[in-house]
Amino acid sequence: MPRNRSRQPENELHGALLIDKPAGPTSHDIVDIIRGQYGLQKVGHCGTLDPAATGLLILLLGRATKLSMKLTADHKIYEGSIEFGKCTDSYDAQGDITATAAVPSLDCEALNAAAQSFQGDIQQKPPMVSAVKKDGVPLYKLARKGKTIEREAKPVHIFSFEFNQYTAPAGTFRVHCSKGTYVRSLAHELGEQLGCGAHLRTLHRTASGKFDVADAIRLEDLVKLPEAELPGRVLSLVELAHLLQPE
C-alpha cells in the first residue's frame, strides 16, 4: 500500500490506521494512546487482540468508524505457538495452570493430522477468561470470582490450521479463520483431542481481510511520528471503499 499521501484537512482525519501491536497493551489502550497523542476525537478499532497477542490491529478514525462492522467481519490469519502438556484456565500462557500431563510422541505430521479435524465449519465455545458477556457481565469477571458457567457454542469456520515446526513440548502453527474464532480455544481443544492438554503460548495476527501486518506501523514508531506525518499513514475513505469492494 502507498506510504505517502496528501495531508487531509487539519483535525479531520477519516480512514484506517494499521498498527503492528506489541504485547502488553489492550486494543482499547492503543485507541486511547492514539486519541491522546494526536488529539483525535473519534477513534475505534476492529478485531480485538488479547493483551499478550501481537500483530495487526486496525484503527478507524473519524467517519471511518462507521465501517467497523464491515471490517470486523473479515477473515483473519494468525501465526503462533501451542505448548502441549499443560492446561490453563484462560487457555493461554497468561492463565493459571489447571492440569498437566505427559506429552505423547509428536511431530508435525501427527499435529497436522489432528488439526485437520478442526477445518471447516465447527462449533466453538469461548473461554471463561474472555470478554464475552453473560447477563451484561464479562466472563473474565465471573472467572476471577471462581465461577464457571455454561457458554453457548457459536459457529466459526477454519479455512486452514497447519503446523510447520515442532520442538517438544511446543509447535508453531498458522491458522486462517473466520471472525469470532478463539485461537485459544483451538489450542485447548487440540490438546484435549491429543489427550495431554495444551495452551496457546504466543499469537501474532498477520492479516485481516485485505489488510496485512506488513503494511502496518509499529506502535513504538507511531508514537514518535510527527503529527504532520500522520495523514501519510492513514488509508483514506476512498481507499477503504475500494478495498471493501467484492472481488
Helices and strands, with pairings:
Layout lengths: L14 E7 L5 H12 L4 E4 L7 E8 L6 H5 L3 E9 L1 E3 L8 E4 L7 H8 L4 E5 L8 E2 L2 E2 H6 L9 E14 L2 E8 L5 H12 L3 E11 L2 E2 L4 E2 H4 L11 E3 H8 L3
Parallel strand pairs: 1-14, 3-12
Antiparallel strand pairs: 1-3, 1-15, 2-3, 4-11, 4-12, 5-6, 7-10, 8-9, 10-11, 12-13
Structure overview:
There is one protein chain. The protein has 247 residues and is α+β, with helices and mostly antiparallel strands. The protein has 2 domains: 15-73 and 211-244, Pseudouridine synthase (2-Layer Sandwich), CATH 3.30.2350.10; 76-207, Pseudouridine synthase. The chain has 7 helices and 15 strands. It has helices at 27-38, 68-72, 108-115, 139-144, 183-194, 219-222, 237-244; strands at 15-21, 43-46, 54-61, 76-84, 86-88, 97-100, 120-124, 133-134, 137-138, 154-167, 170-177, 198-208, 211-212, 217-218, 234-236. Strands 1, 2, 3, 4, 7, 10, 11, 12, 13, 14 and 15 form an 11-stranded mixed sheet that branches. It has a two-stranded antiparallel ribbon with strand order 5-6. β5 and β6 form a beta hairpin. The radius of gyration is 19 Å and the shape is globular. The two termini are 18 Å apart. Mean pLDDT is 89; it is low at 1-10.
